[in-house]
Design a protein that fits this description.
Elements lengths: L5 E3 L9 H7 L8 E3 L7 H7 L4 H13 L5 H11 L6 E5 L2 E5 L9 H19 L3 E6 L3 H10 L5 E8 L5 H8 L5 E7 L2 H12 L9 E3 L5 H4 L1 H13 L6 E6 L4 H11 L4 E8 L4 H8 L24 H7 L3 E2 L5 E3 L3 H7 E5 L2 H15 L7 H14 L7 E5 L7 H8 L7 H7 L6 E4 L2 H13 L1
Parallel strand pairs: 4-14, 5-6, 5-8, 6-7, 7-15, 9-10, 9-14, 10-13
Antiparallel strand pairs: 1-2, 3-4, 11-12
Helix pairs in contact: 2-10, 3-4, 3-10, 4-5, 5-6, 6-7, 10-11, 15-16, 15-17
The structure holds pyridoxal-5'-phosphate.
Length: about 450
């Protein structure tokens, strides 16, 4: 069978297979790659997943995309290596579960994509030969997950840009203590500045001789692994064919796009709830049909979601038949009525985030952190509009509370235990470079490091 092809959301670059889309990161026309068609998984197959461990569910879902590009036995081994941690589904109340995606090596859901991407880079680079430099802008968790996943992967160098003032101490230490093939750059600016610097580097002809690639939300390899856990949850919590509700704390909208991909592949979904913090460009767009990015992005306690212009919206708009370019300009509107039918979006400010965190603890004796609780509160907002009834619901918790000890302690009065996987890294010495939000300086930095 010929491999599945991926097209650019900007429509100006030719379609490519998964390997090419993956190694390029972004399409040459600055669009994002999306599948030309979505492979299908029937309810009976989803039901079979109920008896499989996570790594095998990942294999069964991802092989639909890797067919003809990665042999099945190789993919199965890659999934085994990537996913050696659990995905707990905790009962909150009857029919409502918390899916904890915080059991990976850096205690955030970013590990799900990063672990698999490291496997894929390893394999694809072996096939095509050569070296690649992965440039990543992070608002905290991506950098840590990518740095851990790619640490000592042959042929790969990683450069992580992060906004110095916007990441928590443990987020920073998880990426600045690894060294070897991992370089971290603290930028005196915001996440948006870091992301803009990375985007310019990709489009810069002066950097052509450096093979740059991306592990950010713009890479299709980041998105596909994030569809797997929705199938996993459904196989365990819903009857075959029974639609579900998912509430997802959203920043760059990669996680929620994983749910959209799963839905396009046939997973029965009643509603996808994209809950955001003060960066409310998407809920406003859904309500008004007019897209206005938030610039500069707004700071909030759920700092991994401080994204003023979520890059995955270009993909979402494409799935719904429209065209949004990388700057956020809508050239052809998507089917807004269909979007409103399938999606709900709400903005939770810091005050409600803190109140909700405390109330959730008091009511259920389950500790959340500032991102997961945005999803919980967004779920409550939706329930106030559309009664849940008997629909099974999943609230996605994207990080371990121990990554945000200051914030959690302020609200509940004590600091959460640090998981063993995290403690080792936190004790190492840090090493990072510093830079202003200045593209020329960043280009010089890249060129200097490349010739060395
Ligand atoms: C990155 C991140 C998010 C947001 O995910 P997106 O895919 O960018 O929407 C939410 N919570 C945590 C803890 C994160 O690290």
């Amino acid at each position: 069978m010929s491999p599945l092809l991926f097209r650019s959301t900007n429509g100006q670059s030719p379609s490519v297979n998964l390997r090419e889309a993956f190694l390029a990161g972004q399409a040459p026309d600055r669009g994002l790659y999306v599948p030309e068609r979505f492979p299908h998984i029937a309810p009976a197959e989803i039901a079979e997943f109920a008896g499989l461990p996570y790594r095998q569910v990942a294999f069964r879902v991802l092989r639909k995309f890797t067919d003809g590009v990665i042999p099945d036995d190789a993919l199965a081994a890659m999934c085994d290596r990537a996913y050696d941690f659990g995905v707990p589904l905790e009962v909150i109340q009857r029919g409502v579960h918390l899916m904890r995606l915080d059991q990976g090596p850096t205690a955030s859901f970013k590990d799900f994509a990063a672990q698999m991407m490291a496997q894929m880079f390893g394999r694809f680079l072996q096939e095509v030969g050569g070296q690649v430099t992965i440039l990543t802008a992070t608002s905290g968790d991506t950098g840590a997950a990518v740095a851990h996943a790619f640490h000592e992967v042959p042929g790969v160098r990683v450069i992580v840009l992060f906004p110095l003032a916007e990441v928590s101490e443990s987020q920073r230490k998880l990426m600045t203590t690894l060294k070897e093939n991992i370089r971290t750059v603290a930028v005196d600016g915001k996440f948006d500045d870091c992301q803009a610097m990375v985007k310019r580097a990709f489009a810069d002809p002066a950097l052509e001789r450096i093979h740059l690639s991306s592990a950010n939300s713009i890479n299709i390899g980041r998105l596909l692994p994030q569809s797997v856990y929705y199938f996993y949850a459904a196989s365990r919590l819903a009857w075959p064919g029974e639609p579900m509700v998912f509430s997802i704390p959203s920043g760059n909208f990669g996680d929620m796009m994983g749910a959209v991909v799963a839905r396009e592949m046939g997973l029965p979904v009643r509603k996808i709830i994209a809950s955001v913090n003060d960066n409310d460009a998407f809920p406003r767009y859904l309500a008004s049909g007019v897209y206005e990015k938030i610039s500069p992005s707004r700071n909030s306690v759920s700092n991994a979601m401080n994204v003023g212009h979520p890059s995955n919206l270009a993909r979402l708009v494409a799935v719904y038949g429209g065209h949004m370019d990388e700057t956020g300009k809508v050239h052809r509107p998507p089917d807004l009525a269909a979007m409103r039918r399938d999606l709900f979006s709400t903005s939770i400010n810091d005050e409600r985030t803190r109140t909700s965190l405390r109330e959730f603890w008091n009511k259920y004796q389950i500790l959340l952190e500032p991102h997961g609780v945005v999803a919980w509160q967004g779920f409550l907002d939706w329930c106030a509009v559309e009664p849940l009834g008997n629909t099974p619901a999943v609230i996605v918790e994207t990080a371990n509370p121990a990554k945000f000890p200051e914030e959690v302690e302020k609200v509940v009065g004590w600091a959460p235990d640090v998981p063993a996987a995290m403690t080792a890294g936190l004790q190492q010495t840090e090493d990072y470079d510093r830079m202003g939000a200045d593209y020329e300086a960043f280009r010089a930095y890249l060129l200097a490091r490349h010739t060395r």
